[in-house]
Write a structure and sequence with these properties.
The strands form three sheets. This protein has an eight-stranded mixed β-sheet. Strands 3-2-1-4-5-6 form a six-stranded parallel β-sheet, sandwiched between helices. Strands 9-10 form a two-stranded antiparallel sheet. Helix 4 (85-94) packs parallel to helix 5, helix 5 runs antiparallel to helix 10 (333-352) and helix 8 (188-205) crosses helix 10 (333-352). The chain folds into two domains: 12-129, Rossmann fold (3-Layer(aba) Sandwich), CATH 3.40.50; 133-311 and 344-348, Dihydrodipicolinate Reductase, domain 2 (2-Layer Sandwich). The chain is globular. It is an alpha/beta fold. A hairpin with a 2-residue loop joins strand 13 and strand 14. It is built from ten helices and 16 strands. Helix content is 34%, strand content 28%. Bound molecules: nicotinamide-adenine-dinucleotide (NAD). Nicotinamide-adenine-dinucleotide binds at residues 17-22, 42-45, 48, 65, 79-82, 84, 88, 102-103, 129, 131, 171, 173-174, 177, 192.
Amino acid sequence: MPIPLPIEDRPIRVAVVGLGQIAELMLPPYLAHPEVEVVAVCDREASRLERWAPELPGALRTKDLDEVLAAEVDVVDVLVPTPLHADVGERVLDAGHHLQIQKPIARSLDDCDRLLAAAERSGARLRVLEDYVFFPPLVRLQEIVRSGELGEPVGMHLKVVNTGLGGWDVLPTAWEWQLEQTKDGRGMLVFDHAWHQLALAVWLFGPVRTILGWVGETELAPGYTLDAPATLAWEHEGGLRVTLDITLAVDTFWKSDFYSCDERVEVTCRRGSVRCNRISAAGKQEPSLEVYRDGEVRSFHTIPDGGDAGFHASTQHLVDLCRGRTADAVLDGATARQVLVALLGALDSSQQGAVRLDLP
Ligand SMILES: NC(=O)c1ccc[n+]([C@@H]2O[C@H](COP(=O)([O-])OP(=O)(O)OC[C@H]3O[C@@H](n4cnc5c(N)ncnc54)[C@H](O)[C@@H]3O)[C@@H](O)[C@H]2O)c1
């Protein structure tokens, strides 16, 4: 049986499984949070366990997932490669632990449904970590749109430029499985990264009812391609349309302490617009958020906007969920499934192909 929530009288006991690249963003917020105790960490690689040993002298450090599952733990946070999400996540839920799992929830609807079914039968909470919907400038953007000060939203444009220079050095192992994913069409830039943009859109405007995809490819090295340039366009149930452009600019330097990537989110409303100028990276030294209305621009310069800000805010939300201060997992399993359905729909659409014109 999972630990009953809320947990009121002691820290939340978290175990982390998978200590690769994203652990570098997930663990610091836990370590900094006074209401969280990291009680166990697990990875197949001894070097990754050693990496965190100085910060976690009292925690169980093990290569064996069963040892974690047998420990006194409230939430198991799964940070393993996406192809392993269903297997590892199902074991966590069947062992009776609450599960937090990274985006994308899974690589297929079957795997996603395995996780949802396991959560249902165990009674445990399933939370999919989506840091973008906790990134403070985007939270403010949502508040501005919902306030009605710009009138009814009429469209959104999302832009991602993946740059090759700047940012941290991603672990070679993370590159390996990510590039492998591209081979069956679920690649790093659309399946893995555009998940964030689709999740953001669903969080802002609800379920997607129609989607188009046009996914190209760029060869990085013989046998290794990335799934860009890509363009996705979709319509939400309410009728609002969104376009997303994903471009690869490998020789561009883009300042970042984390992933290097130029990302923009612009919501156009009847009376004006609101634009977020960066997410993962530091970007150009612009305000992170700008609002245009009636011939004037309002700029926001003091919202926390580091590439790790969404991870800190998401950790606070996990604590609030475990403490009973909120009932909404953000993202819950059903919402994550909606995002996956839309993403797979875009890839199906792309398979059908664009119209090639016979030019002379
Ligand atoms: N939220 C974000 O912005 C974001 C960014 C990057 C990655 N991610 C997600 O995080 C997940 C991990 O990605 P990553 O980049 O950290 O990958 P990674 O390859 O760097 O790390 C994965 C780690 O899991 C370990 N591992 C693999 N199988 C294991 C098992 N059965 N038990 C224990 N440990 C195991 C590996 O040894 C490795 O250290 C993916 O789902 C990815 O999509 C999310």
